[in-house]
Amino acid sequence: MIKGSLFNEIGQNLQKGLDWLRKTDLENLADGKYLIDSERIFANVQSYETKITAPFEAHKKYIDIQYMIKGEEKIGVVDYDVCTTVEQYNSQKDIEFLDCSENVNYCTLKEGEFLILYPDDAHQPSLAIDNPAFVKKAVVKVLI
Q1: Residue 2 located in a structural domain
Q2: Burial class (CB in 10 A: 0-12, 13-18, 19+), 43
Q3: Is residue 131 part of a domain?
Q4: Which end of the chain is more exposed for a tag (fewer CB within 10 A), N or C?
């Protein structure tokens, strides 16, 4: 959990990330990394096939704003504290892989929708709804 006011730096940085998503022609943007505010706020645009299964992951340095540009996918979200580590935290890539089997909530991320994931939100992105399908997604990373 992150506590703060609407005018704190994290809130302002989340707003910058959301503004970038709103103002950018995402459908015509090539896959890759886009700096919004140096390494404090950046976006990874990626196209891929959704999967039947995928690992859970969590981040410590960045908040994710996952935005679906094309297609749809299922994302599992669960409290980090109920998970066990499968692959130790990699500080260079800001990622830890986890095994999470309790109290997982699944949601569908459709075109034009976003999901904000904090460090205490272990998440399982890129899951197929029924069958693997093509998606294009932007993940805006906001430094805490």
Answers
A1: no
A2: buried
A3: yes
A4: N
Q: Which two three-digit tokens encode residue 32?
A: 């890759």
In a domain, 1, yes or no: no
27 contact partners, CB below 8 Å, separation of at least 6 = 69, 70, 136
CATH of the domain at 64: 2.60.120.370
Query: Does residue 44 form part of some domain?
Result: yes
Query: Per the structure, how many domains does the chain have?
Result: 1
Tens of pLDDT along the chain (144 residues)?
344 555 577 889 999 999 999 999 999 999 999 999 999 999 999 999 999 999 999 999 999 999 999 999 999 999 999 999 999 999 999 999 999 988 999 999 999 999 999 999 999 999 999 999 999 999 999 999
What pTM did the predictor assign?
0.92
